[in-house]
Amino acid sequence: MNIDEYITHLRKHHHVLITVENEELRVRAKKEDLSPEIVERIRAKKEEILSFFKAVHAGKKYLAIKKAPDQEYYPLSSAQRRLYFLYELAEDVTAYNVPQVIKIEGVLDREKVVTAFNRLLERHETLRTVFVRREGIPYQQISTGAVLDIQWRKATEGEVPAMINDFIRPFDLGKAPLMRIGVISLSPASHVLIADMHHIITDGVSQKIFIQDFIRFYKGEELPMLALQYRDYAEWQQSDEQQKAVEAMEVFWLSEFADMPGVLELATDFSRPPIKSYEGGVVTIDLSKEETAQLRKICEQQGVTMYMLLLAGYYVLLSRLSGQEDIVVGTPVAGREHADLEQIIGMFVNSLALRCHPSGHLRFAAFLEQVKEKVLTCVEQQNYPYEELIHKLKVDRDASRNPLFDTMFSFDTADQHAIELPGLTITPYRGIGRASKFDLSLLAYEQEDQLYFEFEYAVKLFREESVERFAAGFRHLLLLIVADTSLPLSALCLPLPPQLAAWCQGEQAESLLADECRTFTVLFAEQAARTPLQVAVKHNGQELTYQELYSLSEQIAFHLQQRGVVAGDRVA
Fold first, then answer.
1. 179 - beta bridge partners?
2. Diameter of the chain by CA atoms?
3. Tell me: the pLDDT tens digits for 551-563?
4. Residue 257 gets which letter from DSSP?
5. 182 has which bridge partners?
């Protein structure tokens, strides 16, 4: 067995995950899975394993993407094609704007700011790209005459949020640059900088590159010339050679969705609008450093990453909220496996559709293992474009929903700390309005050894207080998991709603809490058995007892079964 087969064997058969971080070997596994024999063998093969990972990374560097020949038009990448399609559906929305806002403390040199942004525009062709159609096909074109007009404003602290919201406007993808810059001066030594771009030219990693390059140009540094530009990547991705390379991945993804899951049916406060609205809100919560440390300990014990643990907790939350046990959650991957792509601004991110089954009989530790395997397996197949999967599955288009999943989970591992410059301090500016592309999304990030969570939601579906209850429920679930990972998922219950919690006490509260983990049909059948002659419903002068209502519901259920309806089907 060669070394790559051995690493795969450990993961699949012994649940031992081996990675390399900062040129150090990292082994993640449960204590009971890490036998002395395995430990000794890993130690004996340490240098061989390190050499293997180095060879893999070196191999990626040698798989260089060739520069595309100079031409007037270039193809769109897969991710760009989907964003262009969404843009044409609704050109007047800001759902796919990606605003970045930072607070700058210190005296800002206006001339250096202008120079830095002009050099950014020159360095990254993406910032000068426009999108046009030729014979019905969309292409990208590099503009040579793009001019950046930086807007300078003065305001008080209280006026800033409204000014930011006014600054974020729809883009015309046919006009460069697809970037707007604004500087709001609160005082000579305090400023808010806004950089708004369309998602078709940027992603999360690109946002960080954008700020890093801006800072270096502001300091007057010279940066090495980029080996590639985004057009080279797009040309390479759409080449026949690369399309053949992802064919094997297509087989995997089509088998994942050989039987299509039902849509996620969260209980909403409002009826779903026929056309999706992107108006969003955000609810934030956090864990203490002590609670974060306890979760980290669980990760070590179970041999998983924090991402996997939090994702598993999110599945449990969604299952509790929906009553479903077949759930698809979207998650982003950077899509920058080639070393030459690491410093390029552009839209590289791909979405993975992770399908898991949080069945009530599973113990959390077993479900966590399921999530771990799902993540690792899907990440190995991450280069298959999400847009292509939607096309191949022939997913029915629904203007009120996203195809395949309506919820996202992401985990940002980068510690969000202040950036120090000579005479300047740069920090993220939070609290701006946000669009919501999905019904509900969860962003988790760690800062100074403490976990923070942002629940982004569609305001046309949920009230803020409902999402606050979801967030509190998620925190509650995580603490239950910390207390005992051997609990079955059916025992991981959400806390009682505040009005019920205030109304009942003692044994009554415990009874209701237990009921939270049981289905409505079971509770109704039990109630009908206890009080068959008691009136259950009244309407327009008519009454039905529990026995009569139960009998009618059984008749309807039988009729539906005769029509072929099975568990999980949506009836109305």
1. 197
2. 84
3. 788 778 767 877 7
4. T
5. 151, 194
